[in-house]
Amino acid sequence: MSVIQRIRDKGAWIVFAIIALALIAFILQDGVRRGGSGFSNSTTIGKVNGEKIERVDFEQKLLMYGKGQQREQLIGQLWNQEVTTIIMQQEFDKLGLTISSKELNDIIFGDNSPLKREFTDPQTGIFDVEKAKQAFAQIKKSKNTEQQAGIIDAYIQPAILQALNSKYQAMLQQSLYVPKWMIEKQIADNNLVSSVSYVFVPYTTISDSIAKVSDDEIMNYARKHSKEYEREEEARTIAYLTFDATASSADSAATINQLAGLKNEFAATTDIAAFFSKNATESPFYNSYVSRKEIKQKNIDSIIKVPVGGIYGPYVDGNTFVLAKVVGAKQIPDSVKVRHILISTHQQDPQTGVLTRVREDSVARKIMDTVEAEIKSGKSFDSVCAKFSDDGNKSKGGVYDYFASARMVPAFNDFAFEKPVGSKGVIQTEYGFHYVEVLGQKGSGPAYKIAYLAKPIVVSNETDAAANNAASQFAGTSRNKKQFDENSAKLNKQWVLSGEIKENDFSIQGLGESRQLVRWAYEHEAGDVSDQPIRIGEKYVVAIVTSAIKPGLPPAQVLRPTIETIVRNEKKAKQLIDNKFKGNTLDALASSTGTSVQKADTLLFSNPFIPGVGNDAKFTGAAFNAANKGKVTDPVVGASGVFAIRVENIGAKANSNENAETIKQSILQGQRMAIYRGSDALRKAAIVKDYRSKFY
Q1: Residue where a domain stops, chosen among 331, 365, 380
Q2: CB 198 within 8 A of CB 645
Q3: At 317, which helix (H) or strand (E)?
Q4: Are 585 and 502 part of one and the same domain?
Q5: Which residue of 277, 502, 577, 590 shows the fewest CB atoms closer than 10 Å?
Q6: At 34, is the pLDDT very low, low, confident or very high (cuts 50, 70, 90)?
Q7: Looking at the predicted structure, is the pLDDT value of residue 133 above 80?
Q8: Which of 270, 307, 16 has its CA nearest to residue 138?
Q9: Does residue 15 sit in the same domain as residue 149?
């Protein structure tokens, strides 16, 4: 969590202090539940069964959880988390489930403490409970409520909710029961074997063109099965046309000319860093040698053929033109093993990569002098490393096992790959001072130091304006669906139909992140065309709303892909029964349908697959129905065709190995899975008001 990381960077004692205050506040409460933020705001982004989700609280959590993540994606994840949390907390309250102060104390200081990382001794790997408790006792006077809230939201509250959920799940699990008769019936059913004769006619014998399905038939079927097809959320679909604003040949030529003007200066310079400070490049200069095996740069085989100091290019690499200069070449090991002790001057945020100063150079240098003195005095490297190093691998003696070139910052890479085995010394990098010892080296091969002057191919104002003007002209003359289609044809462009777009979506399939277009679609109705093109990436987009699907049953055009085959098969089944299935015996039915009587001698209830028919629940039901023994059923509408069946015999497998306990556990597992799915039922039953689209 970013909040925790920022606190941790300021020192362990602050971690103890802030966590202590948070825990004291919680432990003083006898039973803790959700809510109670110190912030209040009239803006509400949603309600769950009447309980509000306030925007200010939501934004705080976005900031806390969202560092290094895509904000748009996180909004949806956090929303679902908040809705689920409220629903479950309401269930906990109804059932009277709480966490007492003693239970909270056990959670915080127990084996599964959410604070284990902060209070675990890096040398022993043991959670230091006493140290944590001492810190709590010492720090009671701080009033930093913002940081307290951060700790509570990031660590304490999730632990409490997890504990409540465990109680809830345990209560449900204890209610599960499988009666003896159910086990016995399951064993009996699993052992059933049926022998049947049947006539089967697949739906594929009738052409789809003979059984066309109308929109009314689609909707009639949907209304009969409304629970399956009703939508809880509104949706939109759009059709859109794109006008590319990508770089033209003239734009590419401009970039090439820019590089040509810098080529001689680039070739002549001996100070690459200074050159790049004046002339920006898309490829930062790695001022160290990299093994040929590790260089993945395009055209590398051609680049290394030029002499040291020579220039290769310009060449195209993605959306850039590049000049490559071979600064140096030499032999280096393929991989090396080192150990080091780091005295930090800066720490890097793991999410953003930003370096923050944590110690002055002069202070770090004095500590490093002590490190060198202790090692020279004969103290073991491991003990000195454990005592002084700020690196995350100090518990491993500061060892970095064999690694390839370019994995470390340049100064570290230089020492590790260019010094012989056994070399020891102090170097300085952007992270601080390192005491480094080269432990081993493997292999050898050519390595190169290469500088890349990479310039992006920039879309000119003229190119962008041309695409915008073309899109604007299309939008201005396409004010309805007919004009939209006609003008698309004139331009020889094919519009694209989107999938269903939800109100809070941030992207549209085929276009990517396009929140502006999503909002536009929900501000307009079916048939509306965008007045102005919308810029998405390197495209200008003109769109028309093709459907506005309200909550409830969608229109036939939306349901057709799902329902059409089902309804068509029903129509085919009626045609087969009315026109083909004639007679009271299987032989007569086979004759009238132009098929033959087939047999299945060992049909297992536990695995009722029939070649040519598949797994058909209606066929299985008829095959194991004792009432059908010795007589022919009426035609039955199955999943893949129509059939009539005669049961010849129903018996049981000999020497069954069915185990009652195994069957019981199998049934219980099914019940457990139903419990886990129960949260979906709770959410469907909840009244959720979602106002996010007003704010995001």
Answers
A1: 331
A2: yes
A3: strand 311-317
A4: no
A5: 277
A6: very low
A7: no
A8: 16
A9: yes
Q: Are residues 214 and 267 in the same domain?
A: no
Question: For 442, phi and psi rounded to 5 degrees?
Answer: -125, 140
pLDDT band at 638 (very low <50, low <70, confident <90, very high): very high
If asked whether residues 30 and 166 sit together in one domain, one would say: yes
Check whether 292 has a pLDDT greater than 70.
Answer: yes
Residue 77 counted as domain residue: yes
Distances in Å between the Cα of 178 and the Cα atoms of 173, 182, 498 are 12, 7, 48
C-alpha 227/C-alpha 324 separation (Å) is 64
8 A C-beta contact, residue 61 and residue 195 = no
CA distance 423 to 440: 10
Q: Are residues 65 and 150 in the same domain?
A: yes
Q: Do residues 554 and 231 make contact, with C-beta atoms less than 8 angstroms apart?
A: yes
Q: In this structure, is residue 694 part of a structural domain?
A: no
User: Could you tell me which of 171, 26, 152 has the C-alpha nearest to residue 88?
Assistant: 171
pLDDT over threshold 70, residue 22: no
Per the structure, the count of domains in the chain is 5
Three-state secondary structure string covering 136-156 = HHHCCCCCCHHHHHHHHHHHH
Segment holding 291, helix H or strand E: strand 290-291
Q: Are 9 and 358 in contact (CB under 8 A)?
A: yes
Closest CA to 255 of 324, 322, 325: 322
pLDDT at 1: 38
- Asked, for residue 452, whether it belongs to a domain, the answer is no
**pLDDT value at position 20?**
45
Count Cβ atoms below 10 Å from residue 131 Cβ, excluding itself: 14
Q: Are residues 588 and 648 in the same domain?
A: yes
Residue 273 domain boundaries: 249-331
Q: Which of 342, 350, 344 is nearest to 5 (CA)?
A: 350
User: What is the number of other CB atoms lying within 10 angstroms of the CB of residue 271?
Assistant: 8
DSSP state of 524: S
Burial of 686 (0-12, 13-18, 19+ CB in 10 A): middle
Strand order through the sheet with 290-291: 290-291, 445-456, 320-332, 311-317
CB 357 within 8 A of CB 344: no
Whole-angstrom distance, CA of residue 184 vs CA of residue 102: 45
Interstrand relation of 445-456 and 290-291 (parallel, antiparallel or unpaired): antiparallel
Residue with tokens 């979506």: 505
* Residues 408, 286 contacting (CB under 8 angstroms): no
Q: What are the backbone angles phi and psi of residue 595, rounded to the nearest 5°?
A: -120, -165
Return the pLDDT at 672: 87
CATH number, position 403: 3.10.50.40
Which of 147, 174, 201 is a domain's end point? 174
541: CATH: 3.10.50
Instruction: Indicate whether 434 and 503 sit together in one domain.
Output: no
Residue 677, domain member (yes or no): no
CA 388 to chain centre: 39
pLDDT over 90, % of the chain: 69
Q: Which two tokens stand for residue 550?
A: 């309200």
Evaluate whether 219 touches 553 at the Cβ level (below 8 Å).
yes
How many Cα atoms are found within 13 Å in the side-chain-facing hemisphere of 501? 31
304-348 pLDDT tens trace: 999 999 999 999 998 999 999 999 999 999 999 999 999 999 998
CA distance 464 to 251: 11
Examine the domain organization and report whether 152 and 64 are in the same domain.
yes
